[in-house]
Amino acid sequence: AYVIAQPCADVKDKSCVDECPVDCIYEGGRALYIHPEECVDCGACEPVCPVEAIYFEDDVPAGWGDHRGSNAAFFDTIGSPGGAAALGAQPHDSALVASLPQAVA
Ligand code: F3S
Ligand code: F3S
Hints:
By secondary structure, the protein is of the alpha+beta class. Helix content is 22%, strand content 11%. It has helices at residues 15-19, 66-74, 84-87, 95-99; strands at residues 2-4, 25-27, 32-34, 54-56. Bound molecules: FE3-S4 cluster (2 copies). Residues 4, 8, 11-16, 32, 49, 51, 53-54 line the site of one FE3-S4 cluster.
């Protein structure tokens, strides 16, 4: 599966959402998350992210490796909804994203 890493936090551009053919990119409070089982590895989302937050799971930069588990953990409480649009934005974040310092304007 593809993974959304740290640069998405507090940016949430959402260009990726429009590209996904299976609607598996879900919105949380501070970032978006790719469902590790619903993603079909099409790769369409990766080039459109303006902050280069999206990587194939084997290509996540070392410093952001924990985001593989972070994307999966986002779904611990909601399972496999089968579509992000119908579910809508969720208020929660993974523990990792929730722990990131807030950007100072
Ligand atoms: Fe985030 Fe980039 Fe998508 S900032 S919402 S991963 S386009
Ligand atoms: Fe969708 Fe990106 Fe996976 S477009 S299917 S989340 S590789």
